[in-house]
Amino acid sequence: MRFSVLLISIFCAALAFAAERPLIHFTPEKGWMNDPNGLFYDRKDDIWHLYFQYNPNQPYWNQPLYWGHAISKDLTTWTHEKLAIGPEHADEGIFSGSIVVDHNNTTGFFNESINPDQRVVAIYTNNADIQTQDLAYSLDGGYTFTKYSENPVLNVNSTQFRDPKVIWHQESYQWIMTVVQAQQYQIQIYGSTDLKHWNLHSNFSAGFTGYQYECPGLIEIPIVGTNETKWVMFLAINPGSPLGGSSDQYFIGDFDGFQFKPMDSYTRLVDLGKDFYALQTFSDVEKTDGVLAIAWASNWQYANDVPTKGWRSSTSLVRNLTLDYISTNPEKKLLSLVQTPVFESNVSKSTEKSNITLQKNDSIDFNADSGVFEFELNFKVLKKLTYPEVPNLDLYISTKDGAESIRFGFNPVIQAFYLDRTTDAFKNPFYTGQISANVEPYLDNEYKVHGVVDRNIIELFFNDGAVTMTNTFFLSEEANPCTMNLTSNMNDEFHIRSVSFKELSV
Amino acid sequence: MRFSVLLISIFCAALAFAAERPLIHFTPEKGWMNDPNGLFYDRKDDIWHLYFQYNPNQPYWNQPLYWGHAISKDLTTWTHEKLAIGPEHADEGIFSGSIVVDHNNTTGFFNESINPDQRVVAIYTNNADIQTQDLAYSLDGGYTFTKYSENPVLNVNSTQFRDPKVIWHQESYQWIMTVVQAQQYQIQIYGSTDLKHWNLHSNFSAGFTGYQYECPGLIEIPIVGTNETKWVMFLAINPGSPLGGSSDQYFIGDFDGFQFKPMDSYTRLVDLGKDFYALQTFSDVEKTDGVLAIAWASNWQYANDVPTKGWRSSTSLVRNLTLDYISTNPEKKLLSLVQTPVFESNVSKSTEKSNITLQKNDSIDFNADSGVFEFELNFKVLKKLTYPEVPNLDLYISTKDGAESIRFGFNPVIQAFYLDRTTDAFKNPFYTGQISANVEPYLDNEYKVHGVVDRNIIELFFNDGAVTMTNTFFLSEEANPCTMNLTSNMNDEFHIRSVSFKELSV
């Protein structure tokens, strides 16, 4: 264990003032990435496949745009594979889409030599003069693809028709595609028995509209502690999120194979941070693995301007999705998405403290030179203060020399967690410095926070994932966030039930 | 004119390093203000009445909480009046509510000596052990009030039942109250023939929920260019807005006297800034004056912490509300609220320029020592740039010495306006520095902005009020925002069709 820490320190020192990509979040080695695409699990070889919107030529969005590809055994570390699908012309793109495993060969693309668990079909948007939904299939389990000769399989003669997400709906025994008429604010639901011929079943519109809809997705999710499920419709909007730029929202309801009927008229956000967009769920996951999803961890308002060198953007961690009734105020529990991170790592170094009532300027400290760590914090608010008091429980996350910090914390009078990610390293008027999340205590005045910090991204899971907030941040010269200090400006206001810090390695 | 400018300069100098309250936005002279309440127009005396949530004793929220009172002839300058209504006990409050003019004496509170246009009845929440809806009436046109002896008139035995807004609904010949079961996420619609006895007609729930609902309001609003109207349901949420803290949303639909039926499932925000909450419309406005409303121009996340001295918070300007079909992308027009500011002022000084294609580092400048000015900017984007270009049209608004600035601007690649209001004068992790608004051009690549800057508030009206963004800001030592510089980082990207700056006085 000591040896591994030493190795990390040397590694960290060697890379000071150079680009350090996140370790347990997927990034391209070079070039530009946006939405995750075609996520699926290969049951035969036990391999997770991740494709993504990829411009390998420049670290910003541009055409020709490809499906990049990476694989993983543990949903944590990813091996970069060759480009999976590319456009016919340089001014075109293979835009977002999904993959299904066609076990029963409904498409006729496969013969008996292809294992049913590896009958991989991609459904994606071909972005040319217009946007159409096209197919490509793989005879080698997802590494190389052949475009279907009769493409497109769905064409409404629109320049704004995209992002097909396909699932198999067992009850109605058909493929279901959700796809957006982006600027009509319509999620369209189509059905097919062969992935080639599609019938429009219904349209769905709701929520914040912004400029346009993108990346829809419909999936059945279990309600924790019951045998029940509900259907969740995911919907991305960009630009024009109330947070600025890009956000994901969702709606909970029922689906009969033809129409999605929301259970209420509420608009729910998937994540309260500024860097969580275009979430997609994995296809063909074993039921015991749950419902798994990945989002793009950036925002179109500044994604092309962030100060990373040679590469741009990471994904979120993989998240396991369930539904549960979550307290949103003292009177109400709302059925809500619960998200927990899925990753496997080694702990290089850790510390744990418990039952400490913080006094003013007390500090609980930890160092993680690699800039990759997680923390779990369980605290109780002791005194019910009110205006004009400004009590803060603060976790400062700083560079090794302490010159730069981001500040995460909680104010019980305002009843919200905050993140101040302002640094000198990145100035952009759309890069919102201060972001917050209103969170209801999970017990009387008690809150839980699980944070994962990975070089330039912080994912926060409040109360076991009842609320989440994902944000990137940028330190000068790409120094690592190495030093943590948990502190308060008040005596006897915050009781730390427990806090642990763990430096992570893979 | 020169004389008036001189006077303002002297005034400005005298107040340097002292508290300067906004001039054409209403503020309390001292103490704390939040929601506007009981807004009504006295048709007999041609006087506008504004009441407001008021703690005269401290510059932060606390009980006893009163209805403060001010009157105006021009909706711009306000005369402070005595406290209008106060609670029975020091630990109680007269919470938000509305006023109606009971022309027909449905309550029986008035005799013939009281002019029908001055039969003033306040319906408000009494905040004690529980929250109930109470009445008070005025026999002197709104200056002093008598509480109804049979209060409360509506009690559901809840601690979270508040903010009654009452209108007269002519078609069903009854009073209609919208009021929230705040933590049940319910707007309740009640009807009454005498303001004393209320029947529950229906409930309405929608939109973004946050922690709780507050300050509902239902009103009929004309659709521009037609003889049609729609009903608009306003709804405030706090905390837990997607922007952080407090926001107002609205829904458009029909109302038959019993139920509000939204025309679609969209969630719309009234204003995209962080300081616009608890909007209320005026009662008894002459039809020719339109639908007029005022909001509180702050946010509960930091309202009690802003660095104003002895007083806290202003209202928004009065806004005239209409509905119109607004382009939100190239394919779609959505019926939306259109808001234009209503105020009367003198122009102390002005400048106007037109037909200038900005070159890099060109600057169009203006000074307004009083810190009170408006600007109208009409520009065209000349070149369609894309990533990774970062073209900015910037309006810097600075202190006289230039030491501190806020930055307002537009980036055509990101397709949004931004405000960076970060200054050294106010650091609070909930005080979001960077706020943005996605705006569709009103003509081919053309945008209009009307801005009103009043010492520590900037209200922005895009494309004649199709989108609005209201934010406070704070300069060191409360120096005034005196200096404007309109500039760009690009050659030949922005063509200024016209720009005018006007220093305002009253």
**Which CATH architecture of the largest domain in chain A is right?**
5 Propeller
Secondary structure tally, helices of chain A: 1
Give the biggest beta sheet of chain A: 6 strands, antiparallel
Task: Give the N-terminus to C-terminus distance of chain A in angstroms.
Answer: 12 Å
Please tell me how large the radius of gyration of chain A is.
Answer: 23 Å
Number of domains of chain A: 2
**Overall mean confidence score, pLDDT of chain A:** 95
CATH homologous superfamily descriptor of the largest domain in chain A: Glycosyl hydrolase domain, family 43
In which order are the strands of the major sheet of chain A placed? 24-35-26-31-32-33
Q: Work out the oligomeric state of the chains in this entry.
A: homodimer
Strand content of chain A: over 45%
Share of residues in helices of chain A: under 10%
The beta-strand count of chain A equals 35
CATH structural fold name of the largest domain in chain A: Tachylectin-2, Chain A
